[in-house]
Fold CHRD domain-containing protein.
Amino acid sequence: MLNDLSKFRIFALMLVLSTFAFTGCKDDDDDLPIPLPKTKVYELESVADPNIEGTATFVRLDERTTSITILLTGTPTGGRHPAHIHANTAAEGGPIVISLEPVNGTTGISTTIVQTTDAGTRVTYEDLLRFDGHVNVHLSQDQLDVIVAQGDIGQNELTGKSKQYALNEKDVPGISGSVLFEERKNGEALATIKLQNTPEGGIHPAHIHKNSAKEGGDIVFTFNPVNGSTGMSMTNVAKLDNGTPFGYKDVLRYDGYVNVHLSETQLNVIVAQGDIGKNAD
């Protein structure tokens, strides 16, 4: 992802080893090898600023203690960027659960020792790797609504499996793109719609419908609307609008299609459309 990512990971490993050596050193006459602590690295993608991205490294120090180190590139010198672990996926958003040390803009680094949530609930390394959450790094304390880097963690981590479907031009010439479904560790999916040539400032509702596009059918799943200025929409896929469980594997075998509409008041105007699941095979 990053040109400097390998350097970051080497640096993170050095931090891990130095911390472990300090907290777990043995007598000189003990020849037994010292096991490396458990480590998990999550990617933090750019959001508001395409130049800022990096990683969050979780290290198990002991059965009660986890070290979390954020390493970013592209942060402005002198900046101070609040960071938190939030509940839910990044696509859904959620409240702050664990406050992390702010990222130093000059170094791009933040390290936090974690034993509990902000509410005082004990949380272990293993708990964090199962957690339904995401990490946000914000522009400043006064601008928490501006997220400079973000990444899903725990059960929301992506497995690397994905399926992309074409969204073809329909009623508005020149608008087309794709919808990408990526599998999460918990079986849910991240859906990313990307369209070209959407009008600046537009808000375009998007849905999964029953049946093939040729047949037509009712809405069964509602995506977050496509932002016309970026042409993008990101949505967590876990259940249909009626509450029926609906994850990554369900998408791949579903009898359905995707419509992206011109606006909430003009749902009859379809700007892009494409079959998914078994209809696209």
About this structure: The radius of gyration is 22 Å. The chain has two domains: 5-154, 158-280.
